[in-house]
User: Fold this.
Amino acid sequence: MTFFEGKRLVRDKALDTWRVEGKEHQVRPVHDRHELDKLLRVKLQEEVEEVLCASNKQEIAEEIADVMAVLAGIADFNNVDTDEIEVLGAGWTTNQW
Assistant:
């Protein structure tokens, strides 16, 4: 399940971590599809910004992983199969940049 806290989208995995750490947060579940679609897109922008601000290899790797997780969530939300994505990106290689 996906939750909204204040101004940001959080996964239930984050809530579990917060509980273990003893942190309390006011959250509410997101049930509305239109709202979730909008929040996922905002979350993607937030995560991309964190990639741009990362200053070392470890931070960059962690932030890219977060971007990929949000992209996977957007794909799942829109019923886009990961096989479709792989076919569309088949010509892309890491060395092209």
